[in-house]
């Protein structure tokens, strides 16, 4: 049985983020992770039952850390327009600067081992923005929240592929969500 915590587990997860950044998820083998962590395969299997368990854990770590950073930016704001705008912008900025974003957003969409994890995370994020969308007039806000998660993810991917901010896409996304016509 895999152990849930400890410095060895953390070192393996951090090494996994590095491998994901360098090689993507398809290049993330147990051997590559333990080599990057300077550990043995035995250490890996003390903390994770298999590669799938590891991938799910690394996906959770990445998204939990992203959520913590976003809450630090918008957690003090009341639900509504400003929190929605700042949250989306902060999320997109974090995706551009955070290690392994490309692997954990692009490749996770097609990795069967991560499909359920990714869907669960997207559902969670959608629930976090429902009050903001209701405050800007969406009724019902839930379907728009689900669509928003997908749209923000797609803008993030465009920015990652272009290796830069795409203010045109960010502005269009915000205008759509805030129901503002172009001038």
TrEMBL record:
DNA-binding region in chain numbering: 29-48
Keyword DNA-binding assigned: yes
Keywords per UniProt: DNA-binding, Transcription, Transcription regulation
Domain HTH tetR-type positions: 6-66
Chain coiled-coil ranges: none
PROSITE patterns: HTH_TETR_2 (PS50977)
Gene Ontology MF, one: DNA binding
Keyword check for Transcription regulation: yes
Entries under InterPro entries matching the protein: Homeodomain-like_sf (IPR009057), HTH_TetR (IPR001647)
Name of this protein: TetR family transcriptional regulator
Organism: Thermomonospora umbrina
Lineage, uppermost ranks: Bacteria, Bacillati, Actinomycetota, Actinomycetes, Streptosporangiales
């Amino acid at each position: 049985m895999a152990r849930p915590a400890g410095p060895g587990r953390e070192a393996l997860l951090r090494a996994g983020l590095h491998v994901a950044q360098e090689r993507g998820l398809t290049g993330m083998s147990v051997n590559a992770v333990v080599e990057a962590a300077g550990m043995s395969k035995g250490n890996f299997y003390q903390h994770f039952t298999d590669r799938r368990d590891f991938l799910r854990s690394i996906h959770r770590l990445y998204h939990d850390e992203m959520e913590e950073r976003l809450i630090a930016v918008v957690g003090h704001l009341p639900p509504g327009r400003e929190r929605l705008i700042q949250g989306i912008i902060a999320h997109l900025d974090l995706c551009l600067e955070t290690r392994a974003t490309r692997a954990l957003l692009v490749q996770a969409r097609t990795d069967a081992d991560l499909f359920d994890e990714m869907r669960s995370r997207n559902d969670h994020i959608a629930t976090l923005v429902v009050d903001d969308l209701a405050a800007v007039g969406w009724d019902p806000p839930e379907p728009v929240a689900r669509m928003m998660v997908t749209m923000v993810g797609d803008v993030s991917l465009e920015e990652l592929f272009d290796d830069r901010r795409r203010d045109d896409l960010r502005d269009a996304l915000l205008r759509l969500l805030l129901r503002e016509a172009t001038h």
